[in-house]
Amino acid sequence: MFKKLNIKVLVIILVILAAIYAISEFTGNKERSFSRILVAVDTASVSEIHIQIPSDNADIKLVRNALADWSVEANGNRYGADYGVVKSILSQFQEMKPERIAATSKEYWGDFDITDSLAIRVTLSSGKKNVADIYFGKFSYTQPPQGQMQMQQQGKMTTFVRSAKDDRVYAVEGFLRMNYQKDVNSYRNKNLVSVNRDDIARLSFNYPDYSFNVEKVDDRWMINGQPADSLKTLRYLSRIQRLTSVNFVSQDTPKTSDEVYKITVEGNNFSPVELRAISTPDTTISYIITSSANPEGQFDGTKSQLFKLTFVDETEFLPDQPE
What we know:
The strands form two sheets. The chain has a nine-stranded antiparallel sheet with strand order 4-3-2-1-6-7-8-9-5, with no helix packed on it. The chain is built from four helices and 17 strands. It has two domains: 145 residues; 120 residues, no CATH class. The protein has 323 residues and is of the alpha+beta class.
């Protein structure tokens, strides 16, 4: 009798152990799914980024050409793209990892702004094949715990996302929507000059009524053959080496062609860059600034004092006269 009882106990124990093992395997697989990247993308092969923001009626494409240059397309127009923005978007897809599942079915999509009409949809393509298709919903912010020991802790940002092929909504750390703006100018190339200061060797200023040159001769800066103030010259070079603007103006802005200011930047390890300032009857702009390094861009000369700080006169380089 005892022998039969022991066999029954042993069978029960084995059944319980088998059940525990099965449960652990099932839950373990679910947990392991959170450690994986939400999308697996070879960013080097991505040739197009399609951004759709239905709430703002925005439809924008970032497209890579055969020379690996990126352009932005919207409303029938094409411009050079800001590679920093492209890189940030692609990096975001590489690093996107789910922390938890926030919802498992479509009926909860509205709670997370993850529906077709509320979410930002971003599709990555390689040639004609879609390699990622993600909807970005709302975000939440969790404040750090209060107390003396936690004074230096930061709050936590979470964005809710879903894949076009998955009904589940995932919580992902970070404010992921910040890369996607409705304004096409946010994605455009904002550079007028992008060189290293130490590579600049010559500046040629050609204005409607006069001209002058600033060049480096035997490691010394000269202006029209006379010694320039080295500190003042370096200050100007530091300002112009990474000259940018976010203040675009329309291509059809009227121009006055008889008043053109030109600056040519020359040196080592880069092609010469020509900056042009063309007057306009629009008094809110005064001058339209263009750059040979960014042919599609036209910039407002008044905002951020772009014209005033760039198209300077000789006093910007001459030594101060003693009083």
